[in-house]
Amino acid sequence: MVDLTVTLGDKLVLQNPILTASGTFGYGDEVPELVDVNQLGGLVTKSITRHPREGHPPPRIAETSAGMLNAIGLANIGVERFCNEKLPYLAELSTAAIVSIAGSSFEEYQEVMKIIEGRQPRIMGYEINISCPNVHDGGMEFGVSTYMTEELTRHLRELTARFLIVKLSPNVTAISDIAKAAEQGGADAISAINTVVGMGVDPRTGTFQLSTGIGGLSGPAIKPIALAAVYKVAQAVTIPVIGIGGIMTVGDVVAFVRAGAHAVQIGTANFRDPGIGIRLISELGSFLEELGVSRLSEIRGSAH
Description:
By secondary structure, the chain is an alpha/beta fold. The chain has nine helices and 14 strands. The protein has an eight-stranded parallel β-barrel, surrounded by five helices. It has a four-stranded antiparallel β-sheet with strand order 5-6-12-11, with no helix packed on it. It has a two-stranded antiparallel sheet with strand order 1-2. It is globular.
């Protein structure tokens, strides 16, 4: 039997390498009748900000020929409601619960983390979203700067001993440099990638497919971009890398591991099938057995 457990540094062990991506699985409590989230390697929540956000007006999702455009705008219930309504649920999970944090300023990121830490939550860690292309302030402003990435990570590192992941954008000149900055700031892992900047236009009316015009492209269309980013980052840092981007099949999962990922997050595919993560876990064991592989680490980084 293949051992699917994944060790991320010295702080976190996942029962398998399949996690949900932030913004594609809510807070994990929306589909209990469809998915047993405790079978997943981990659950990354929707990004939380200091105050509730309604997000952008519709239309904010549009299907493309090989993926999906979105401009959600970090819609969320705010950290106070999150602590009161969602932390108790997350505390009961046996899988790794990871809270995504977003903000428009250093102070907002810090305040959100302080409030959550003050509740002494039973969560495994945080994913810091510095890569959302769909908000006017914050996020990407940090994610395109090595200085701001390192400083933000360092400030947040001082606030928690929990596992700290920094989620990177592909919309930068050198993603490896941003990853190294996050590592130097104290990150425990890198997740890559967030969505690629994209746009859709109705050819008959000329109207944008998204209310914001420009949004983020996800799904199979960005998988080659994501694989290249994961490969570059894994070569540049010593901390674990979590791959994200267009993962639809077990073959995609293994390709990301071969590119250097320790684990992966399933994103857009959840909108089509919320149970895809559970299925991929089952298929991964069989796939690796066919390859004669007993542990994922045997093939990690083996792309050549």
